[in-house]
Write a structure and sequence with these properties.
There is one protein chain. The chain folds into two domains: about 1-125, Jelly Rolls (Sandwich); about 155-220, Arc Repressor Mutant, subunit A (Orthogonal Bundle), CATH 1.10.10.10. It has helices at about 10, 20-30, 115-125, 125-150, 155-165, 165-170, 175-180, 185-200, 215-220, and strands at about 1-5, 30-35, 40-45, 50, 50-60, 60-65, 70-80, 80-85, 95, 100-105, 110-115, 200-205, 210. The protein is of the alpha+beta class. It is elongated, with a radius of gyration of 20 Å. It has nine helices and 13 strands. Helix content is about 45%, strand content about 25%. Helix 5 packs across helix 9 and helix 7 packs across helix 8 (about 185-200).
C-alpha cells in the first residue's frame, strides 16, 4: 500500500461528488486521502472497526469470509466507482463494521474519507445525501441478488445469470476463478458450459463465451 497526495481534481472527477461546489470538494479533500493498493493487498479484515468510508476510484476488490476449517468463502466483488460503508449506520456513524475480509484483485486506487466530518457534511447537503442514498439502494439491491443467487439458484442458473449480467468479466476470468465466485466446482462449470454449447445457447470462440440465445439464458434463472 502506498499513500499518494490527495488531489482535488481526482475527487472532483468521482461521480458521487460531481454535483458539489468547488468549496465542497476542497472540504472533502481536507479530510480525505487517496491511496493505491496492489493485487493481494488487504483493505481490512473481518471484525475490524474502521473510522472511515472508502470509495474505489479504480480497480476491484473481493469480499470473503473464512469458515472454521479455514476455507475461503467468496461473497461478492466491487469494481471502480463503488462506495464501501455500513448502510445500517447511515444515521449513526460511518464506521465500517467489517463483516468480511476485503482484498484487492488488481492494482487499485481508493479514496479514504474520515467518517465524522463527512457525516456532518452530508447532513447539511441534501444533494450529497441523495447521492449517498442512491448508493445505499444499489448496495441493498446487490445484496438481494447475491442472496437469490446463492440460496435459490442451482449451478446452471448461477452460470446463466453471470453470462447475461457480467459477460465481460466471465470472459476475463479463469474457469477456476469463476467457479470460486459462483460456489460451484470447476468440473461442474465445465459441464454446464458444455451443455449450453450443445443446446446452441452459447458458443465458445478462442476461450471466450458468445451468447447466441439470451432469452434462453434468462429463462433459466428468471
Amino acid at each position: 500500500m502506498h499513500q499518494i497526495q490527495s488531489s482535488k481534481e481526482c475527487i472532483a472527477s468521482i461521480p458521487l461528488f460531481d454535483a458539489l461546489s468547488s468549496s465542497d470538494i476542497d472540504t472533502i479533500a481536507s479530510f480525505s486521502a487517496i491511496r493505491t493498493y496492489g493485487q493481494g493487498d488487504v483493505l481490512f479484515y473481518e471484525k475490524d472497526d474502521k473510522d472511515a468510508i472508502y470509495y474505489v476510484i479504480s480497480g476491484s476488490i473481493k469480499f470473503y469470509k473464512v469458515d472454521r476449517f479455514d476455507n475461503e468463502i467468496f461473497l461478492y466483488k466491487l469494481y471502480s466507482n463503488s462506495l464501501i460503508y455500513n448502510v445500517s449506520k447511515l444515521t449513526d456513524s460511518f464506521f465500517v463494521s467489517c463483516y468480511a475480509n476485503a482484498e484487492f484483485l488488481e492494482d487499485s486506487k481508493v479514496l479514504m474519507i474520515q467518517s465524522k466530518p463527512f457525516r456532518e457534511m452530508i447532513y447539511a447537503n441534501h444533494g450529497l445525501m441523495t447521492k449517498i442514498l442512491q448508493e445505499s439502494f444499489a448496495m441493498i439491491q446487490q445484496m438481494q441478488c447475491i442472496i437469490s443467487r446463492d440460496v435459490v439458484f442451482d449451478g446452471t442458473a448461477k452460470v446463466a445469470h453471470m453470462l447475461v449480467n457480467d459477460l465481460s468479466n466471465f470472459n476475463k476470468l479463469k474457469k477456476h476463478e469463476i467457479a470460486y465466485m459462483l460456489h460451484i466446482q470447476p468440473e461442474t462449470l465445465s459441464r454446464i458450459l458444455n451443455k449450453l454449447t450443445r443446446n446452441g445457447t452459447i458458443e465458445i470462440e478462442k476461450n471466450s463465451v458468445v451468447i447466441l440465445n439470451e432469452k434462453e439464458l434468462r429463462e433459466i434463472y428468471e
